[in-house]
Amino acid sequence: MGGEGGVAAELVIFDCDGVLVDSEVIYVEVERSMLADAGLPIERERYVRTYSAMPGAEWQAKLNEEFRQRTGAAAEDALFDRIRAQCKRGFEADLAQVPGARAALDVMDIPLCVASSSTEDELHWKLRHTGLHDLFDPHIFSTERVQNGKPAPDLFLHAARAMSVDPRNAIVIEDSVNGVAAGKAAGMKVIGFVAGGHCRNGHDEMLTTHGADLTVASFAALAGAIRDLATTKPVI
To answer: What CATH number is attached to the domain comprising 88?
Structure first.
């Protein structure tokens, strides 16, 4: 049941994209392809490490910094609008829950919530579309509720406050470097989750290098990982 350095596990906070719903594989492939066509090719591993899980405005601003550095000018806003529209078409056609999500979540006996860089509308749509919304509603928190998105800790701290849990007694489930950084900055334990379709060889090592306390590769292994981080005495 864990030991030194564990937490009480009074709350599990799930990221959405790439953890609950298999959207990151769509985001990564669409975004990289369209950015390359616009003159900004980015190696896949660096793109996933740098840009995954950023809120939309920050993602666009950071990409524009790279556009300026490499091409001498920012991209047109219309490019990012086209990318978002193409991602939405991909979701409507192919978005599904990450394998095993519903079955594992149905039997978890600990409070759960979602904290995501998606907008409110996007987040609720993704969860409804994949049949997971009822497992979390009303404890669904979008980056729009805080000033600073991931990798800042604001969203996870907001979720813990809303759930009346000390951040030190919460466990975050994250698939991205930015999400892991946010969870650790919030003072939480973080499980790196590498079951999404975008996770290739080395993704687990990348998350561990950036602070994940441990990693798992399936929902079937998640309950055991939570137990491994848990203690029976809450932090007060």
So the answer is: 1.10.150.240
Would you give per-residue pLDDT tens digits along the chain (236 residues)?
333 456 778 999 999 999 999 999 999 999 999 999 999 999 999 999 999 889 999 999 999 999 999 999 999 999 999 999 999 999 999 999 999 999 999 999 999 999 999 999 999 999 999 999 999 999 999 999 999 999 999 999 999 999 999 999 999 999 999 999 999 999 999 999 999 999 999 999 999 999 999 999 999 999 999 998 886 455 55
Q: Has residue 49 been placed in a domain? A: yes
Q: Is-contact 114 106, C-beta < 8 A? A: no
Query: Which range marks the domain in which residue 61 is found?
Result: 25-94
Q: Enter the pTM of the model.
A: 0.91
User: Among 94, 117, 140, which residue terminates a domain?
Assistant: 94
Domain count, the chain: 2
| Statement to judge: residues 165 and 78 lie in one domain | no
The CATH number linked to 125 is 3.40.50.1000
Q: How many CB atoms lie within 10 A of CB 134?
A: 8
